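Predict both folds.
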Amino acid sequence: MRRRRTLWIVGAVVLLAVVIAGALLLQRHAAPEPVRLLPEADAYVYLNLSPLRTAGVIGNPLPTYEPDYESFVRETGFQFERDLDEAAVAVHAAPRLTDVEPGRPQLESFRRYSWVFRGRFDSQRADRYFRKLARSVESYREVTIYNISLEGRMVRVALLGVNLAAVSNTDGPQAIHFMVDRYKAVALPFGGPSVVREYYHHVPLASLVWAIARLNAGAGGRTPLTLPGGYDLFFPSNTVVVGSVRYLTEIQVTAQAFTAGTESAKQIVDEANAFLAIFHGLENTFSPSGADPDVKAFFRSLKVEQDKDRAVMTAAMSPAFLKKLFAEAPAQMTGSEPETKPRKPARRGKSKR
């Protein structure tokens, strides 16, 4: 009897271990929850800020010169540099010009986006702020959706939970409703957008930033990607690009282009290496001796190689370079420059004689 009980205990422990191992295996091949909540789109980008904050790359609030953002921080108490942990964005296809109604603003032909943010925010303060901005408010499956008019289009915001928020600027409410539905269904580990489910296992472990994009064919059956300097790098039809950034002893940048065959991969590698040769030639000719060494080291580390039907680009970035990018981001995003006017000296009180 005692032996049978021991066998039952051992069997239960083994079964529990198998279940845990299976869950971990599923989790390894499953995208983070903010991505799994997103609707179908052409491309996806994910950002995990927590390790960067722990490493000291970000954390202290960065200066901003955008009044709208300052108002947002003041009224909600939420600062992206301090309170945002994860962000995921879906890039939707832009409407074709033939689909745009005559007389509608040109911005209607721009791409649309859906976002999911995970962070620490005060739900009550956020509710008051968004209600003040909203043109209208609706309730969908017991979730409040704020319809905010911004730059000629409707932006929909939904606070999904205590630490999750969804945003979309698509033409209709379908995208925001989809994200609410996914949240209510408790997104399963094997769920999420189709291209993410298919290619997420190619994202290296511990990647802080990654992107997966399916490049649809453009004119002539190829999709152009404009690189710095106006140089176009063309991708064959239906190429899928998986890019990632991970922070180990150094910051490793990788981009893999999955193509239909070796010839297509070779074409991408040849064009990319031709661009790098031109770029390095111009750098050697025009780059001043005082150029930032971190920037120069990054571009010199760029390599593009072929692996069967894949074109693989790798590069290394120093942590110092990453800190500079984050420090310069606010001014670049807002298009503003820091004030350079000298401050007036403070008035001193009259000295007592």
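Second protein follows, with its predicted structure tokens after the sequence.
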Amino acid sequence: MQGLQRAFDDVLAVQGVDLTVEEGEIYGFLGPNGAGKTTTVRMLTTLLLPTGGQARVAGHDVVSEARAVRSSIGVALQEAALDPLMTGRELIRLQATLQGLPSAEGRRRADDLLERVDLVAAADRRVGGYSGGMKRRLDLAAALVHEPRVLFLDEPTTGLDPVSRKTIWEEVQTLNDEGTTVFLTTQYLEEADQLADNVAIIDSGRIVAEGTPESLKAEIGHPHIQLQIAAGSIAAAEEVCARIGQLLPPKDGKTVLVEVENGAADIPPVVRALDEAGIAVEALELVRPTLDDVFVAKTGYHLEEESGESAAEAVEA
């Protein structure tokens, strides 16, 4: 996509987004609520016309070749449109019919997909009685009926408990291993870090950072070793550690932070130097930069604080 824009009256919700997603990768689109993630996905899936710029999905223009785009993609949006009066099996078969699959093929695909997302036991129950996690898995199965080349997942695990979230992660990874390109929007840092080959961070409708999770974290700095030192030895410990790496501002009067280039490989020299100086270390931890550190550096605030929901607060599914 190049210069992709979407305005709502006087509000420019997406402000000239440039992105390239390679075939066969998982691309993480990371940002808080209201950043422009869902608006971007709705344009890429032909549900919303851009007001500027252009985009191609699976080789097709999202405006002039919208029908071809729709036949190439699967979409599971944040709010699943599932008829609560239908059973899971009926819903998947209906989706197969809408995608033009022959009746026998549709039944076979429905059975295969229900098994894949572990809903066989609930296949003939009405969807209205499904838990949140079950509905998300059913929506994912519906998006896969026609074996799409590109799968769009818009915050697929928001509101799910950790077990259901992990199940979705595993299925997304499996689909990608089988060759499906996945465009994943999320407000969960761990989700992007675990799944995505490349990540773009969007804030207020603009891309503020893009790259692999590791390259983005490397931009922020090297890992650092956090040392809990016995009282009275802080100054001496800092003097020793400064010979090995860059000292960082301390958190308190008992902690020494030293940035190191080689990560875990630099722990033995630090410990050995402190021991030779007669300095007692009460605790030690290697701390690596996180995507939250990247987000703070690029935007000035923490993503997960802004999202208003943590994994611990997710509803049961």
